[in-house]
């Protein structure tokens, strides 16, 4: 929670570094700066998903899952993850347009992030249907765990699918950007910033949930007196 | 097969409303409890909590069989449960439903209980062709078939005429000595079958 | 446990076949979409890739249409409590799984011949084709059975089922399409790896579903 507040230090640093410190990349020039936002967002979306999954496992199998409302925390993480995913896709398409001239190319990485988006959307659809169902926590946690089990199969399949379905291989130039020390530093700082941003938002949502719970309890106690 | 059921400070909340709280009791063979109160007061919910179908919002239920603790879902095989929201399979015949509940037993036991609940002659008809009173009697037959040590009955007399009710009451009287019986009901007559009482109207 | 599963299976088969409406509708659905696609195409010959894609889209939607019923019927007719009190959760899961797999095989047996006939498909490697359809079908049915239980317990309908199934089932569809293309073209190569993949997928989802089913089936 308190760690989240470090974001106030890191994020401005990351933004400054992205625009002033890191040199423009060969080829793309100033436009390459988008990488310092796109990559950490994508990383954040995966982190959020992993955290949701772990919280779901602890909710079902841990000793005090319901007490600690871990199912709701998993939900909070998923919300942040969904936002990061959408932003990653948008920033990724902008970058793709600048690099290759088209917004969308269905290469493995793009495909993977869309699948993640799909997973998040399905999770929220399921969660949303159960707003007054006492089993919401359990069922949504099971869904996340099931999806986590399927992810390794995706990792295996995605790189093979598009070469086989699309005869024109698209050379993925994304990670081939040669990064010098300054660029790597900036990317690292940015990645840390976005991670902290995630932690910060999680902390806020979880604290808010805790406060709401306390208010409910106080109202309950008042009523009985 | 002595079974002991204990509820400690059971409370149930839905969203922010408390349905009931501070319910505690302890029951062993031969004891019985009626849960009464107006509609919506939580009788069925409490019965479901006792059965282990739902958990309480706070407090706990414990079950013991011969002194050893029994886990919640394992308790199901020791209860006979009936409720207005629980139906038998209407596409199956009465006998097939009983076979489904009974497991390995041969048909003698099934036919005997059909007899007891005056459904003999209808056992090979699909349940969807039964009258509501017959359906209720079949549900009761399924509930009592395996002779469970704990009987949890939510409105057992629903849809039954005088004769039907007399059948249940005489059945309960004949087995009450070795059973724990809990009845959730609006009817005073049914509540009177039990010695203990939890009244949600107070 | 086995006797519980058998008892439950027998009951499910009896109930489903006595009121055949759901089964018939699911089969009719599979037939209709196959016909619709071929009619809409107006006899245009498709490449093997497109044929394979159509086959698996048809099978996916037939699954979405037909494999939910085994759980939603229990909720609609309010027999689910009767069931959960009388049969342990794991046995319920296994029996429903076996039912869905068997049912989906029947759907495939109706769909594939229609598909081959109306879309004018030539299958060069029949064994591979059959194995792909079987293993892909197994993977589909295993993956969605748990999701069907979840949809039913969540009170959702077919559209929710489709939404939550798609991400889970996507690897199966991709791999099945790839292997089907190879079987239509007669070029096997590593298509048999795909069959292994599908079987592994079935195993993994069945195992995790078996472990987690009780959290979905029983109330909080």
Write up this protein:
The complex is a heterotrimer of chains A (225), B (202) and C (220). Chain A contains 6 helices and no strands. Chain A is mainly α and 225 residues long. In chain A, helix 4 runs antiparallel to helix 5 (136-165). Chain B is of the alpha/beta class. Chain B has helices at residues 43-51, 94-102, 107-116, 132-145, 162-175, 188-191, and strands spanning 3-14, 17-27, 32-36, 58-65, 68-70, 79-82, 150-154, 180-185, 196-199. Chain B has a 5-stranded parallel beta sheet with strand order 6-7-8-3-9. Chain B has a 4-stranded antiparallel beta sheet with strand order 2-1-4-5, covered by helices on one side. Chain B starts with a strand and ends with a strand. Chain C has 220 residues and is an all-alpha fold. Chain A binds chain C through residues 60, 66, 115, 118-119, 121-122, 125-126, 129-130, 133-139, 141-143, 145-147, 149-150, 153-154, 156-157, 160-161, 164-165, and chain C through 49, 143, 146-147, 150, 153-156, 160, 163-164, 166-168, 170-171, 174-175, 177-178, 197, 200-201, 204-205, 208-209, 212, 215-216, 219-220.
Query: Which CATH class of chain A is shown?
Result: Mainly Alpha
Gyration radius over CA of chain B: 17 Å
Structural class of chain A: mainly alpha
**Strand tally of chain B:** 9
Output the helix-strand order of chain A: HHHHHH
Helix content of chain B: 25-40%
What gap, in angstroms, lies between the N and C termini of chain A? 35 Å
Mean residue pLDDT of chain B: 90
Assembly category: heterotrimer
Mean pLDDT of chain A: 85
Poorly predicted runs of chain B: none
What is the molecular shape of chain B?
globular
**Biggest interface:** A-C, 34 and 33 residues
Helix/sheet category of chain B: alpha/beta
Number of strands of chain A: 0
Biggest sheet of chain B, strands in spatial order?
6-7-8-3-9
Approximately what portion of the residues of chain A adopt beta-strand conformation?
Answer: under 5%
Strand content of chain B: 25-35%
The dominant shape of chain A is globular
Task: Summarize this structure as a short list of keywords or feature phrases.
B: 202 residues; alpha/beta; 6 helices; C: 220 residues; mainly alpha; 9 helices; 85% helix; globular
């Amino acid at each position: 929670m308190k760690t989240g507040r470090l974001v106030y230090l890191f994020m401005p640093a990351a933004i400054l570094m992205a625009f002033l410190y890191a040199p423009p990349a060969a080829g793309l020039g100033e436009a390459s700066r988008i990488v310092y936002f796109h990559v950490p967002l994508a990383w954040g979306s995966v982190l959020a998903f992993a955290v949701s999954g772990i919280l779901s496992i602890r909710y079902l199998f841990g000793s005090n899952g319901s007490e600690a409302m871990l199912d709701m925390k998993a939900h909070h993480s998923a919300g942040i993850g969904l936002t990061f995913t959408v932003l990653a896709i948008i920033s990724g398409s902008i970058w793709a347009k600048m690099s290759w001239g088209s917004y969308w190319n269905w290469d493995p990485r793009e495909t993977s992030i869309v699948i993640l988006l799909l997973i998040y959307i399905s999770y929220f659809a399921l969660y949303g249907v159960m707003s007054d169902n006492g089993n919401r926590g359990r069922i949504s946690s099971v869904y996340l765990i099931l999806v986590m089990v399927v992810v390794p199969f995706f990792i295996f399949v995605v790189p093979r699918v598009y070469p086989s379905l699309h005869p024109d291989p698209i050379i993925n130039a994304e990670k081939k950007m040669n990064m010098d020390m300054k660029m790597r530093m900036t990317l690292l700082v940015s990645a840390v910033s976005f991670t902290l941003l995630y932690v910060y938002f999680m902390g806020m949502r979880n604290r808010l949930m805790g406060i709401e719970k306390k208010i409910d309890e106080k109202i309950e106690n008042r009523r009985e007196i | 097969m002595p079974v002991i059921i204990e509820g400690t400070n059971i409370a149930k909340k839905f969203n922010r409303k408390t349905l009931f709280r501070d319910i505690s009791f302890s029951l062993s063979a031969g004891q019985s409890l009626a849960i009464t109160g107006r509609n919506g007061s939580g009788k069925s919910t409490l019965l479901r909590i006792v059965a282990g179908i739902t958990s309480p919002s706070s407090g706990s239920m414990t079950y013991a069989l011969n002194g050893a603790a029994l886990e919640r879902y394992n308790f199901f095989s020791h209860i006979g449960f009936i409720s207005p929201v629980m139906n038998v399979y209407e596409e199956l015949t009465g006998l097939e439903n009983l076979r489904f509940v009974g497991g390995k037993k041969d048909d003698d036991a099934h036919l005997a209980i059909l007899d007891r609940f005056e459904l003999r002659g209808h056992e090979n008809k699909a349940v969807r062709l039964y009258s509501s009173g017959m359906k209720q009697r079949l549900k009761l037959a399924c509930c009592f078939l395996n002779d469970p040590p704990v009987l949890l009955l939510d409105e057992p007399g629903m849809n039954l005429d005088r004769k039907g009710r007399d059948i249940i009451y005489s059945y309960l009287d004949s087995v009450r000595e070795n059973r724990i019986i809990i009845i959730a009901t609006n009817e005073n007559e049914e509540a009177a079958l039990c010695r203990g009482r939890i009244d949600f109207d107070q | 446990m086995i006797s519980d599963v058998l008892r439950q299976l027998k009951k499910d088969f009896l109930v489903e076949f006595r009121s055949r409406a759901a089964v018939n509708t699911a089969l009719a659905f599979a037939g209709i979409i196959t016909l619709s696609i071929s009619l809409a195409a107006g006899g245009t010959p498709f490449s093997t890739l497109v044929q394979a894609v159509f086959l698996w889209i048809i099978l996916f939607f037939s699954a979405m249409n037909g494999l939910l019923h085994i759980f939603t019927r229990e909720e609609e007719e309010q027999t689910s409590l009767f069931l959960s009190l009388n049969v342990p959760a794991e046995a319920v899961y296994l029996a429903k799984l076996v039912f869905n797999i068997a049912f989906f095989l029947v759907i495939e047996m109706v769909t594939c011949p229609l598909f081959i006939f109306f879309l004018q498909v030539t299958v060069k490697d029949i064994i591979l084709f059959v194995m792909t359809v079987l293993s892909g079908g197994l993977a589909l049915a295993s993956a969605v059975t748990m999701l069907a239980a979840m949809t039913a317990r969540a009170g959702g309908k077919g559209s929710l089922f489709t939404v939550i199934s798609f991400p889970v089932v996507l690897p199966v569809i991709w791999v099945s399409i790839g292997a089907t293309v190879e079987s239509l073209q007669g070029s096997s190569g590593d298509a048999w790896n795909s069959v292994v993949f599908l079987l592994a997928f079935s195993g993994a989802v069945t195992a995790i579903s078996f472990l987690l089913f009780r959290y979905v089936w029983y109330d909080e």
